[in-house]
Amino acid sequence: MERKKTNHTKSQWQEIRQAWLFLAPAIIVVGIFFVLAVLFAFYLSFNDVNLFTNTFSFKGIENYLRIFTDQKARIALRNTATFALVVVPLQTIFALIIAYILSSKGIKGKKLFRMVYFLPTLTSSSALTIIFMFIFNIYGPVNDLFMNLGFYSEPINFLQEPAYALKVIMVMNIWSTVPYYMTIYLASLVDLPHSLYEAAEIDGATTVDKLRYITIPYLRPITTYVLLTGIIGTFQMFDQAYIFSNGSGGPNNSTLTLSLMIYQYAFGQMNTMGYAAALAIVLAIIIFITSLLAEKLNKERG
């Protein structure tokens, strides 16, 4: 079959040129700070790099092979995966439940609650981390509360115990991200036809039935977005772990994440920028594959 030629009028060509003109700044910025940066990182991953002397030594795939034998990399991957597997489902479930409750009729003070509950989202992650470090300090209010309730007699050093350190960051992340995703769910629930709920009530459906068979299927596209952004955010978690451990990933590497490890090798040691770039490429691939799997799984359940 012959390909038909597209004949544009003079005004249409002017509109196309104007469109490209308006898009040009964004394309240039993306090209310089994203595309070129990714390509340069990919190039660095095959070299040993000393940024101070600006010297490059080609190593082939040695940096990538080093990842599989690096015990520290395995710990960072395990911590990052654990963090994502715990935080993403819980923040999604809590956000959906709270949004569903607030969308119900007859609840007073919903607007005030939404406004107050959304405030943590407006606060910087660094400030929230410092606040939670105070709350979970060995002399902080959490220890005082639990000891007064009789859960234990001696205070727990949550910040310095490997068994608790990452869990504290999980709690903080869930608490600070649920309001944002709750707002997204609420905005979608506004468009949900109430006639579906009314028909379900006539058929004798309970609140749980309406949530399971009407609300959740209707919100599936939004849930996909929440899962994808949650996965990307948790796999890239850096600032909380950095502030919590003062950049070390401690105690005993319990808060070491892949992003923090990339920072350590890129700026904390000499001649390891290439290895850091290889770790960054691998992290990007992991995020991409995990996001695809999450999206596919969510669609299959629909």
Automatic annotation (TrEMBL):
Matches recorded under Pfam families: BPD_transp_1
Membrane topology note: Multi-pass membrane protein
Gene3D superfamilies documented for this protein: MetI-like (1.10.3720.10)
Domain ABC transmembrane type-1: 77-294
Transmembrane feature ranges: 20-44, 81-103, 115-139, 164-187, 218-238, 273-294
InterPro entries assigned: ABC_transporter_permease, MetI-like, MetI-like_sf
UniProt keyword terms in alphabetical order: Cell membrane, Membrane, Transmembrane, Transmembrane helix, Transport
Localization in the cell: Cell membrane
PROSITE patterns referenced in this protein's UniProt entry, alphabetically: ABC_TM1 (PS50928)
Family: Belongs to the binding-protein-dependent transport system permease family.
UniProt protein name: Sugar ABC transporter permease protein
Species of origin: Enterococcus innesii
